[in-house]
């Protein structure tokens, strides 16, 4: 027997794992419950939603109507959404499909099969109530000691909106479009004149007709740009988004895209979200206190350390944050003309509160020379003009006379700089803490783009996203059965 024949013989004796014949009668478990094991997260979703006071959370139709066709209980539809977001199924049509074919959903909904419109309407009609559900879960996690309650990292990220970049316009882009349209219009008109001469004044040849159509279309387009520019002037807004009017073009790293700014406060212990908010403000500046303070409140503590990146550096906000019991740690951005020109930075000048003066790198005392205002704050400029004129360090400090300005509440920045000097590693900790939720939400949970339009709708969506991010973390740390026990306990 040659090697080919022996291989054929061996092959004929080998078999693959075979399934049942499709028409064969099987002895399957009798109850749907037998398909869902004790550690299945759907059991927790079921227990958690059953334990919520849905009327207090703001859900509509918690009490069934006495007359008319019975509707679905809001708790069942909420369970479906939490399950869907946990399993990367967010669209109402896909959720409808899961209710027909997914044994976990069949178990969770007790074989209810709402159609996609009912599912979509539920999310739209109850969008404000999802925040209460998120907060109830935070309180549960607090009871389970999942939050360290010592350090919060605050950060923001852009999540894409249902609005293409081509459908977003700023004043600058509109002016540029109008300028380009005018240029092309002039060109078309010149060509039209030339065609008229060539075709003869009354001929109206094909080329002339074609150009006239192009001119008409361009004029209409130009008119639309003009109308949008007038709208911006009227409303005082900086940009217009046509598909989702609430979304804004904003930078994320080096790219600009149209989306929403999602703010989170993350507790360092298990990298779980404590507070989150969606806004269409294009920068993070000014959002520190409004993100950190509700987080401190829900954690039920008097004070907590808060760390954020330099994008949050704004003296009024840092002052408010400290007053709200959130001890800020925000590095100072290196900006301003002195930094640009490579002169001594402001932090190289030491403020001496006792003498109300700055000590410069040459050891000279800079005293108040001017009083003014910045935004709503009093501002004092400090300088030592006589010393500067003869200073050997002047080439490294100024082109003329150096002055250093101080705002009325700048003590808060001095205290913060002191804290950062004492704990420089807190800034690395920030990155590590906040990158986990944003990385998981965008990469692993595939929730880096909103499905709905409008600020209130995307807020509802992100409440669900943040809830299931926390839910997954909590289930990993605690386990399904202890979590269920905590809900029922
Ligand atoms: S130039 Fe003026 S402010 Fe600068 S180091 Fe010299 S004395 Fe101090």
What is the fold's blueprint, element by element?
Elements: H1 3-13, H2 41-50, H3 54-57, H4 74-86, H5 92-101, H6 103-108, H7 116-125, H8 129-143, E1 151-160, E2 168-170, H9 171-199, H10 206-235, E3 239-241, E4 248-252, E5 255-267, E6 272-279, H11 288-299, E7 304-307, H12 315-323, E8 326-329, H13 337-340, E9 350-352, E10 357-359, E11 365-374, E12 377-383, H14 385-389, E13 403-407, H15 411-422, H16 426-444, H17 455-478, H18 480-488
Parallel strand pairs: 1-7, 7-8
Antiparallel strand pairs: 1-5, 2-3, 4-5, 5-6, 9-10, 10-11, 11-12, 12-13
Helix pairs in contact: 2-4, 2-18, 4-17, 5-7, 8-17, 9-10, 11-12, 17-18
Bound molecules: iron/sulfur cluster.
Iron/sulfur cluster binds near residues 388, 391, 393 and 398.
Keywords:
single chain, 6-stranded mixed β-sheet, alpha+beta, binds iron/sulfur cluster, Nucleotidyltransferase, domain 5
How does this model look, in words?
It contains 18 helices and 13 strands. It has 489 residues and is an alpha+beta fold. The longest helix is centred in the middle third of the chain and has 30 residues, at 206-235. It has helices at residues 3-13, 41-50, 54-57, 74-86, 92-101, 103-108, 116-125, 129-143, 171-199, 206-235, 288-299, 315-323, 337-340, 385-389, 411-422, 426-444, 455-478, 480-488, and strands spanning 151-160, 168-170, 239-241, 248-252, 255-267, 272-279, 304-307, 326-329, 350-352, 357-359, 365-374, 377-383, 403-407. It has 4 domains: 32-126, no CATH class; 147-162 and 247-332 and 417-458, Ribonuclease H-like superfamily/Ribonuclease H (Nucleotidyltransferase, domain 5, 2-Layer Sandwich); 167-241; 337-410, no CATH class. Helix 4 crosses helix 17. It starts with a helix and ends with a helix. It is globular. The strands form 3 sheets. Strands 1, 4, 5, 6, 7 and 8 form a 6-stranded mixed beta sheet that branches. It has a 5-stranded antiparallel beta sheet with strand order 9-10-11-12-13, with no helix packed on it. 47% of the residues lie in helices and 16% in strands. Bound molecules: iron/sulfur cluster. The site of iron/sulfur cluster has 13 residues, from helix 14. Iron/sulfur cluster binds at residues 360-362, 364, 384, 387-388, 391, 393-394, 397-398, 402.
